[in-house]
Design brief:
Blueprint: E1 7-11, H1 19-25, E2 34-39, H2 41-50, E3 56-59, E4 73-78, H3 95-111, E5 116-119, H4 124-129, H5 137-145, E6 151-155, E7 160-163, H6 173-176, H7 179-195, E8 203-207, H8 222-236, E9 240-245, H9 253-256, E10 261-264, H10 267-278, E11 283-287, E12 293-295, H11 313-330
Parallel strand pairs: 1-2, 1-5, 2-4, 3-4, 5-12, 7-10, 8-9, 8-10
Antiparallel strand pairs: 6-7, 6-11, 11-12
Helix pairs in contact: 1-2, 3-5, 7-8
């Protein structure tokens, strides 16, 4: 008997950015899933016209009602924008609309209406300037689902990078790297790589915080006082952790061949080399949530909105990975 197709709900993101463009472009690709786009239907239709795309938009009440995706068509769960979006022009009035997309997409997965959530990029500055605390998708979805510690991981076809801290000022990073947080992060990475990615014994390469991983306390003491003792405890509990290693040599081919994931201490330490190696083919995956969530590896690209110059590669990769993880969760991958 043929297994039912996974249902994936896609938020269309900041309406002034390229999110609606990318969602409209989904109609030009074959995707073996049920795809439901959350967004303003008029906006999506207008953006398709700007791009010269012939897209048949069908309105569905719920993600669960989305038909199998086919070229030339797009199933949309309509959510009206608060103000008429103009490509490239941010409007604080639409901050609530962007958050509503996230809330409804998250809730669809929690309720079982969808198997996975894929998010297009949002503009954090618009949301915060509108008076709504927001530091990113990862933290928002964790709060919405009651997850105590979300872990951001970005993945390409050949490399995975997870983060101990996410959207923090660099000055706040050392104080945030506690033994408890590091150990819990490693446990979540180990668990989700086993359960969601089917890796039997994940090998976690842990970076140091300081240059040369502290060089035995000469260039910083966090490795000696926090990271090394935590990794020793994790190793005794059976986790395949190695480190802390110097970040400047961790991304060589030989080093990466010996691990399944690199665990970086802060955002740019891990994501700069990853994006240099595989930008456009990278998918953001949130570990530690009770739902499956993937996203693009880029921002809203306001200057490209409505021009046809944006590429949907990362969104397509995010949808394909969400599909694989959804099937894995069913035990059918």
């Amino acid at each position: 008997m043929t297994e039912p197709l996974p249902t994936i709900v896609v938020t269309s993101g900041e309406p002034a950015g390229i999110g609606p463009d990318l969602c409209a472009m989904l109609a030009t690709h074959d995707l073996d899933a049920r795809i439901a786009v959350l967004g303003d239907a008029d906006l999506l239709a207008a953006r398709a016209r700007m791009l010269g795309l012939a897209v048949e938009i069908s309105i569905v009440r719920d993600a669960a009602d989305a038909p199998p995706h086919r070229r030339g068509a797009l199933a949309v769960v309509p959510v009206p924008a608060r103000a008429v979006p103009v490509p490239g022009e941010l409007d604080l009035a639409n901050a609530g609309y962007v958050l509503e997309l996230l809330e409804r997409g998250c809730d669809a997965c929690v309720s079982g209406s969808a198997d996975a959530l894929v998010t297009a990029p949002v503009q954090k500055s618009v949301i915060t300037k509108a008076g709504m605390p927001f530091s990113g998708h990862t933290e928002f979805l964790a709060e919405r689902t009651g997850a105590p510690l979300p872990v951001m991981m970005l993945a390409s076809e050949t490399l995975r990078v997870a983060l101990v801290t996410t959207h923090l000022p660099l000055s706040a990073v050392p104080g945030a790297i506690t033994a408890e947080r590091l150990e819990r992060t490693c446990e979540i990475v180990d668990r989700d790589l086993r359960s969601r990615f089917g890796i039997g014994s994940p090998r976690i390469l842990v970076l140091g915080l300081n240059p040369h991983a502290g060089e035995q306390g000469t260039l910083g003491t966090e490795e000696r006082d926090v990271i090394e003792p935590a990794l020793e405890r994790l190793s005794r509990r059976g986790l395949a952790v190695h480190g802390p290693v110097a970040a400047d040599t961790a991304f060589t081919r030989e080093s990466l061949e010996r691990c399944d994931v690199v665990l970086a201490m802060y955002h740019d330490q891990g994501l700069a080399p990853l994006k240099a190696l595989a930008f456009g083919g990278v998918v953001n995956v949130t570990l530690g949530l009770p739902i499956i969530r993937t996203s693009v590896d880029h921002g809203t690209a306001l200057t490209l909105a409505g021009t046809g110059r944006a590429r949907p590669d990362s969104l397509l990769a995010a949808i394909r990975l969400a599909r694989e993880l959804g099937l894995q969760a069913r035990g059918t991958a």
